[in-house]
Amino acid sequence: MSSRKALLLLHRALWLVFVVQAVGSVFVEPPYPYAAGWLPAIAAAGLGLGLSLSARKRFAAAGTVPPLAVDPPVTGRWSALNSPADRTPSHGTHHLGQTYAIDITREAAEGERPRPGFAWLWPVFRRPADFPAFDAPVLAVADGTVTHAEDRQRDHLSRGSLPALVLMLLVEAGFRGLAGARRVTGNHLVLDLGDGTYAMYAHLRRGSLAVRPGDRVRAGQELARCGNSGNSSEPHVHFQLMDGPDLDTARGVPFTWTGVGVPANGEVFTAPEPAPHAP
Asked: Which range of residues forms the domain containing residue 74?
């Protein structure tokens, strides 16, 4: 285990100790002064700051890396969210290899029900099936080997209203962070593209995996379906390239999609059908 991985585990453990003792103190008088109960949180906050600064230094030390050209992970009409075309790191953190990550959600085709917009108060939640992206095929962006795949986590209701979004940001995101990377990404898949580059797809639909670890896949092959698992406000595909298979220690790698480029936030783009493979 690398030192960074060990420190990340310690960081989560300190926050977990703080939360457990804080909840427990509601029912049982702790055998230590009140101020002592804050020590795990203070230590966790300090360690988290150190890890964040370390990640920034690692990013700066890596220098400018040319983007790797791969195929889009979807087909059809989609729009971009949290794109590295607008800022880096795209999700506000280098953690979990997210430096150049992008979120994309499918837009309705002609005759389909439009993608629901943000609601201030009502409806508080929506079903995943109300969104065009839900159950859309997710494709291999290049030839590769599946190194990790899981799809047992549930697809939860959307968080597309102000009350639901506050719940997600202030409560759910914190508990998922404590539980580790797999709870943040939800059902996800990691694909080894060779030459030290890995593709990660997150928030996949429960039970939708079409491949298993160890499988060799071809570019354009269906891997799974878009879902709403993990730390997700609505059904969408989170895609990123990274330099290792372990989300806790990997660094992000820039990408560009063949025929599409890197769409900016809010940009609607059409991903072409994958080219057929020779028999």
From this structure: 68-271
